[in-house]
Amino acid sequence: MADNPMLKFVALGQQYPEKRAADERRADFGEISRAYQIATAEEQASRCSQCGVPYCSTHCPLHNHIPDWLRLTAEGRLREAYELSNATSTMPEICGRICPQDRLCEGNCVIEFSGHGAVTIGSVEKFITDTAWEQGWVEPIAPLADRGQSIGVIGAGPAGLTAAQLMRERGYEVHVYDRYDRAGGLLTYGIPGFKLEKHVVMRRVQRLQDAGITFHFGFEVGRDATLDMLRARHDALLISTGVYKPRAIKAPGVGLGGIIDALDYLTASNRKSFGDAVPAFDDGSLDAAGKNVVVVGGGDTAMDCVRTAIRQGAKSVKCLYRRDKANMPGSQREVKNAEEEGVEFVWLAAPEAFDGKENVSGVRVAKMRLGAPDASGRRAPEPDPGSEFRIEADLVIKALGFDAEDLPRLFDSTDLSVTRWGTLRVDHKSMQTSLDGVFAAGDIVRGASLVVWAIRDGRDVAERMHAYLKAKVHEKVAA
């Protein structure tokens, strides 16, 4: 009997792909980690303990077959590993790069619990699919026979692109409408290149275009067509716009120049990476070069902002977060990367007011302390009286998260029902909104969340739309 290629975690230590030195990576927007070599990827995959109940898969929103493709990788069967990974995810190499594995699969790895260090699942996932692209194993989408029905997808983020792909594979005509000039949503314009280089997203989009999916860029529902007009044009619609309304800070001086929203800042930076003309960047408004930068927030968007500011040549970069390090929502890995690159974190701190005449010159900060747990179980921050101090700032970036835009108004569709949070109200069995044949998925339903959950929702809504459209055909035949 051949030796078992797995369960090597006792003798073989955890090894992530080598990170470029902080000084080197501060100088560009390239991804910070080097790629695994084949031998290292196989070795790291062989550390998997092949659990009977794989918590890694259970805690993955896509329920990826992680132990199975780790074993195939360890055995050198990379093409089979890719095909199995691809069976449950439309974007495995993207999830491998940007998922917070420390909170999902790797954070729930059994050998992590035993003190041996989790299997490096995300890095292996990225390696498998990057290899598949390099070797030509990523085959063109081959749609089934034309069904004679069309769908419209509003929003070209991960949920919309996933549903578009899966519906096209089933033989539907698919049109994707997006307000931007490129597909990808936050994958393209929100997440910086040092976490996700843009060619990785663009090759996915090109594959969809090659499959016959029609993209309508620069298209705003409500301006270029009402929702009712799109309903008349298609047999079913999917709304997957995401949530883009930035949460506000209520404090004196918040209207000063130099106080900007995170998404405006990140979009400008990503557009420059594409070579676009960005006047607000070129005039210095959205450029951190030479400035004292303060980022307010503790999520992954805040981490994207502080690390972008470092690369733009900021004089100093500070991150204010009202809770402590243990209670921040962002990835601890991202915090470590930011600290290595020179970001200063000011924990238990919240802005009280902003100084300046026309442009911001400083932030008055209140020290916080953690009080009793709030409704979510987290200890609520409260001001610590008499502890105020001031931080110099030429640029303040608000990264407090996002809420839903007022879609019934924007889409000129008052019958579109929303929750008290502004997200779309859906029937969770059918994933339909209050309008027949209009489905919704992703952040516009669940609120700001992870890319992997958007992909999961896109996968689920494709199944529901397919069932709905088949039923419409049967009803027409029966009539």
TrEMBL record:
Residues 26-136 form the Dihydroprymidine dehydrogenase domain. GO terms for molecular function: 4 iron, 4 sulfur cluster binding; metal ion binding; oxidoreductase activity. Signal peptide: none annotated. The keyword NADP applies. Its cofactor is [4Fe-4S] cluster. Keywords: 4Fe-4S, Iron, Iron-sulfur, Metal-binding, NADP, Oxidoreductase. It comes from the Bacteria. The keyword Flavoprotein does not apply. Residues 151-458 form the FAD/NAD(P)-binding domain. NCBIfam families: gltD_gamma_fam (TIGR01318). This is Dihydropyrimidine dehydrogenase.
